[in-house]
Structures are given as structure tokens and as C-alpha cells.
Amino acid sequence: xxxxxxxxxxxxxxxxxxxxxxxxxxxxxxxxxxxxxxxxxxxxxxxxxxxxxxxxxxxxxxxxxxxxxxxxxxxxxxxxxxxxxxxxxxxxxxxxxxxxxxxxxxxxxxxxxxxxxxxxxxxxxxxxxxxxxxxxxxxxxxxxxxxxxxxxxxxxxxxxxxxxxxxxxxxxxxxx
Length: 176
Prior knowledge:
This protein has about 180 residues and is α+β, with helices and mostly antiparallel strands. It has 2 helices and 13 strands; from the N terminus they run E-E-E-E-E-E-H-E-E-E-E-E-E-H-E. A hairpin with a 2-residue loop joins strand 3 and strand 4 (about 30-35).
């Protein structure tokens, strides 16, 4: 039983494979990813990328789907990009946000004297509004990880989360 999945390549996007390195170029930028698996063969034809295997093992078939999704996400990223919106929630102490190089400083969280920091991964950009934060970029994993870092930085410990609902929370995610 041979399994084969295809990804259609949108207009203005070029996909090339050298060895196991998949390279996707588009109007917003370029992404590279190592797509190596011993039982999966990747080929790029005119306007589609083909992921195929001769194996019928569940794990290999599942990996074909995973690599197909990665390629599709890369194509969407270089054409449209990804956007995560986060909401700043506080009740008594107004949270102040400031970018410091590759870190987002979260000051006055629950009245704390020392700022909390969240790592902003390279390849993403963070825009700070009054009560909202938006994270944008072309790599879906980097954008999601940066948004997660910001959300985790305001995790509440040693207090009742039903009472202290302050924090920064992801409210929307998707394409730009």
C-alpha cells in the first residue's frame, strides 16, 4: 500500500528540495526546514510538492501527513503570514509593557516590583497596543512560541486563579 499526499504550491511561491532541506520562497520571505525521514520520498513538480511512501506502517503514514502540513504551513507563511492577538487583562494594577531588545518586559503585574520578561524569538515582530499585543511573522512555529512565551510569563502562582484573573491571554490566531 503506497501512500501519497500532495501540496499545491500557490502563485508566486517557489519550492525546492536539496537533499532533505525543503526551501520555500515567497513574497514575504524565505523559509527552510529539514524534512528528512528514511521511508518518505519528497519530490517537487510544476505546481505541487509530492510526499510519498511505500510503507504501510501507521507511524510512517502519519509522518507523511505531518510533513505535508509543514510544507503547507510554510507556503501560507511566505504568502500571507501568521498573526496572534493577545489581550492584556488586569483589575487593580495596570500592566505596562515595553520591548527591551529581544525581550518583552511586563511591569507592575499584580503590583510586583520587579518586571517579568518574555522571550521574543527571532523572525517575529511584536506590536504593543493599549490593552492588546499582536505577534506577527512568517514561521507558524516561531509566532506561536513567542505568543506562548508572553502568555506563560504572566502565569499566576500561589494565588487563587478564580480571583486573580490578571494576565496576557491569546484570544485569536490565524493568517494575516
